[in-house]
Amino acid sequence: MRDxxxxxxxMTGFGKFLDRTFCSLVGEATAEAxxxxxxxxxxxxxxxxxxxxxxxxxGQESVRGQHAVRGTGLxxxxxINVENACASGSTAVNQAWLAVAAGQVDVAVAIGAEKxxxxxxxxxxxxxxxxxxxxxxPEIREDLGTAGTGSIFMDVYARFAQWYAExxxxxxxxxxxVAVKNHAHGALNPKAQYGGTLxxxxxxxxxxxxxxxxxxxxxxxxDGAAAAVLTTPEIxxxxxxxxxxxxxxxxxxxxPGIYGELVPQTARRAYAMAGLGPQDVDVVECHDxxxxxxxxxxxxxxxxxxxxxxxxxxxxxTTLGGRIxxxxxxxxxxxxxxxxxxxxxxxxELVDQLRGRCGSRQVEGARIGLAENAGGYIGPDAAVAxxxxxxxx
Length: 393
Prior knowledge:
By secondary structure, the chain is α/β, with parallel strands linked by helices. The protein has 2 domains: 5-120 and 222-245, Peroxisomal Thiolase, Chain A, domain 1 (3-Layer(aba) Sandwich), CATH 3.40.47.10; 132-217 and 249-392, 3-Layer(aba) Sandwich (Peroxisomal Thiolase, Chain A, domain 1). 39% of the residues lie in helices and 17% in strands. It is built from 15 helices and 11 strands. It has helices spanning 22-37, 54-58, 64-68, 88-101, 122-129, 137-144, 152-167, 172-186, 200-205, 233-239, 262-274, 291-300, 309-315, 331-335, 339-355; strands at 5-11, 46-50, 79-82, 108-115, 208-210, 213-214, 223-231, 244-253, 283-285, 368-375, 384-392. The chain has a 9-stranded mixed sheet. The protein has a two-stranded antiparallel sheet with strand order 5-6. The mean pLDDT is 96. This is Thiolase family protein. Residues 4-193 form the Thiolase N-terminal domain.
């Protein structure tokens, strides 16, 4: 297998863009990624396009990517559509890596895009519910104690938060601290959907969503796109790119009836592939679709001992300037969560961090970055997880 690098990365801002088309968003992100790499569209051999909700929200099925790349210069290049819940984008990167590493093509582009906002808000909620087993919906709703009238995934995360609090010293104040931290990080990111100064008291007093979760603890519905250009180190050097090494990209699937093994097992495989351990990681982007998930994942990635994530958070270690900053982009809770673009958006942040291009949110001396991305629901855990590790050249 050949070594693979991310030679260029780009993304739109994440937000609410009712008047923008998929072509507009994809065109912006792709142009930025190609320009960043120094490549031209005609050098691309294969495109992987990730999207999760266009069918239910916009009625676009089957060949979503072939329509979305119109105007990018990638028309006519072989394109494979990828759908894998919230891990769709990181799955596209995984497949693009495989194509280049195996020598199928020399250059592959991974693109993710989503438009979750619509005048009929129920369509976005339908996308989320569609990631559950449709034959078991009544059973799942009964298990979660929900009538399915809101975001059922926040009910899932509320249960995760309850389980986590029962086995650790975590409190609602800790969940609020994660939201406070990530909104402060997001305020430093011009492409984040939200960001600003919050207090723990303000987060706890905000509108209740499910269980211990309040509105600022929950990722917003987002629109946006992100793209990455993958190639070999030799080709990137010829372009004059400033690449980062793609050290590991690993996917995992949850098993029915099993909770808590998916992310740890996926992470162990990623560390083995990269030849690294948790102690080597300098910066993390993790899937905080709800704030408590950041604490849970911090432990599942081995960044601290079991039950130690709250102490890590309270000490400031996961804040910018701390020992192991987590979600310097603002994470899903502040930067936004356009499902098909989320995983690639995490890697755009890490690429920029390892190049020292993040300005006031720069993690000093960052050499190794890790992204964790998960989604869907198999019951009682997620259906899919991805761990990607990148390193500075």
